Amino acid sequence: MIHMQASLTDRESARYWFGNDSRRILEVLAARYTGVNPPVPFALRAFSKAGILQTEEGLYEINLAERLPEAGKGHYAYACGLVWSDDERSIDGVMQPLGPVTLYMNEERIYRSTVVEEMEPHARAIIPILLRKGWNKLLIEAKKTAAGFGCRFGADEGKVRILNVLSPFSGRAGHAGWVYSESVNRPLFGEGAMPAFDQTEEETGLLWQPRARWTDEDALKPNLERLFGRPTVPVAGYGWARLPQTGRQSIVVEGHACGPSELWLDDERVFELPEAGTFRTSIRRPAGGGQLLIRTLSSPQGWGFELHATADGQPLPLELPIQVHGYEGPWLYRGPIDADAELNPSEVCCTHTLLPAVHQDGSPAGLAYWELDAPHTRLRPYYENAMLSNKWTTGSATNFGRWDYPLGVTMYGLLRSAKALNRQDLAQYALEHIRSCTRFYDYSLWDREAYGFPAINHQLVLMRMLDNCGSFGSAMLEAYSLAGDASFLRIADKIGDFMLGKLERTEDGAFYRLSEGEYFDQTMWADDLYMSAPFLTRYALVSGKQHAMDEAAKQFLLFRRYLFLEEEGIMSHVYDFKYGQATKVPWGRGNGWVLFSLSELLEHLPRQHVDREELLRFFRDMCAGVARLQSESGLWRQVLNEPDAYEEASCTAMFAYAFARGVRFGWLDQQAARYSDAALKAWRGLASSAIDRSGNVHGVCSGSRYSFSPDYYMYDLRTVVNDNHGIGIMMLAGVEIASLKMITG
User: Fold this and answer.
1) Neighbouring C-beta atoms of residue 502, cutoff 10 Å
2) Which phi and psi angles does 321 have, rounded to 5°?
3) Phi/psi at 45 (nearest 5 deg)?
4) For the packed helices 546-563 and 612-627, what is the interaxial angle rounded to 10 degrees?
5) Cβ contact 224:296 at 8 Å
6) 70, 299, 471, 497: least buried by Cβ within 10 Å?
7) pTM check: above 0.70
């Protein structure tokens, strides 16, 4: 038998220190996760909307033929960028050459296009990329030919493997986005001869775009006018800054505005200027406060303002109201806004809201976000907390703020743990993680429209399959009872509409994956019952739309028809419609998803529901099939019916969870003692070999593709420490085991 990799010694295990105290083990699991994943906010960066944008797939559109039309045949140009990695990490890059292209990373050439790729309009090369820990320097050399000039480049599966590129050169430190050079008639850089990214761009001897500084002419214009142009009718613009911390409470604010203006200190209006002119007022800085918001209308004299603060006659330099990387000015700006719009300072002074914008003639112009005092430069939030980290391990990255399906299980686990342990702090942590996604939902939709590909909420915004929405959406609805946040229901409606009205189905109505060109095209996965049914169940409860729960029940019966291995009482991982058959490989976690999710549905399915009895039979049949395959250690194997497969922790936690719930809710009454014993045995096995005394989770299989061969699951899929596929379900198993012990004694 292949044993769980890096198995724990007895002394390292949670059971050695906490015995059978499932509540203590649950506390340690939750404490470790929240401790190593602090609530770090999105990174706010300067980003040029005139720079390199991304395609819907997430590839950077480095089309230099469009950006450098003056370049001659045979000329060269360069694109440079920096990528941070929290750990050494390998990813698959995607290169679509538009002409001859060479890619260098950290002074080494890692790709050069072939003549076939250069001439094929839809050529697509996959490049294995090994990122080192820390900063990685990327240089793309492109040569102009009749075929094209430039490339599209990014990470494969870009909404999951996020590749954020920052700007090189000292004057752009912290800026997001590539820079690209003017064209030159000969190659200047190459292997071992990349430009020094810590020098100024002037020192390279080349001009680089997008432009980061104002021209002398633009710099002389009033600030709002150089940002937004000269309106033909009165429109409003806002500036947001902060007074610095100071021991002096009495502060003088003075300056000049080109039109009627108002100034707020925090939420209190401190002066009004009825027309263009100078102003001077004394204010008292409130303890812990100090946000300044100025609203200025355009006028025939121009559009903009100057504002300075002094204390005891000494200058008091203003500060940015929030941390912005790549920008040193004290003010953030919004505009143009309808002059008649009445907005509260709290609506304006935040980073997740968008304001209704107008054109220079006052006509509607979509939405306005924060601009910075630099050419075409906006504030842009980025998810960077697990920036290409060695995914979900014990590295330095934090998962906070990410919307994806394993973290949906983790948030659900924290919410249930909070209730079981009476720990409001755990509930608040999970709620803040969820809100960090939902609060920016409208912004992230706008971000995708503005820049081609979102910088946050990637999977929610680019919702194309159940993995993208169901798990985290279910956790969001679990949190709704705590938050009462209307935005949760609005997002749930979007997810519900996708599942019930837009998701691909077989002719008999079963959910399946239809994605031409992908390896998983025309397949049905057992996993997708978890990705759909718990959400649909909770959605029915909070929305009153009973047909959503009916759909969840229907899907279990349809999936059983395709995937259930009747003789063994367990599920095949995948049915492949291309081959017209199931793979007949009973992957452990795939089966775990099914039983886990069926227990979630049965808890809420009305007793008189037409499908309830058949679903209960399915639950009992599958519990019986799974129980027969439990190992002596209490764990189940990676491939359930393969004696040589290693023992795997996440499926074991799911089976313990389902068995405990089956006993607790009376679905397994006739054999309650058998399943109680199996659940408790599984938990003892997990506490002995999968959970250590610090709350680290071992022995969890990494994310899976699928195969007709059990060898893929047994030998290619190895276990990972603290993989999020296992952390949440380990907490959930602990909650249910604690509940089971209360009723069994």
Assistant:
1) 10
2) -75, -15
3) -130, 155
4) 40
5) yes
6) 70
7) yes
